């Protein structure tokens, strides 16, 4: 799930407008992941944020070959 730094967020709403699943909303003039269950984690929100207030942490997974 994207993490939104509310200190950096200026409430412009660009992230909300580009989110294809409508996972984000503006509340009290700040972006919020209101519906994390529908987030596709594609990163459009992070890419358009002019304040770099959105980050998408990732998990490193090691897959072992089954030989």
Q: Compute the CA-based radius of gyration.
A: 14 Å
- Fraction of helical residues: 10-25%
Which overall shape is indicated by the principal axes computed on the Cα atoms? Answer: elongated
Q: Low-confidence segments, ≥5 residues, pLDDT <50?
A: none
What is the count of helical runs? 2
Q: How widely separated are the two ends?
A: 34 Å
Oligomeric state of this protein: single chain
List the helices and strands and how they pair.
Layout: E1 3-4, H1 14-18, E2 24-27, E3 30-33, H2 44-48, E4 54-55
Antiparallel strand pairs: 1-4, 2-3
Description of the molecule:
This protein has about 70 residues and is an alpha+beta fold. The protein has one domain (about 5-55): Alpha-Beta Plaits (2-Layer Sandwich), CATH 3.30.70.20. The chain is built from 2 helices and 4 strands. The chain has helices at about 15-20, 45-50, and strands spanning about 5, 25, 30-35, 55. Strand 2 (about 25) and strand 3 form a beta hairpin. The mean pLDDT is about 95.
Please summarize what this structure is.
By secondary structure, the protein is α+β, with helices and mostly antiparallel strands. It contains two helices and four strands, in the order E-H-E-E-H-E. The protein has helices spanning 14-18, 44-48, and strands at 3-4, 24-27, 30-33, 54-55.
Which descriptors would you attach to this protein?
single chain, 67 residues, alpha+beta, Alpha-Beta Plaits, two-stranded antiparallel ribbon, 2 helices, 15% helix
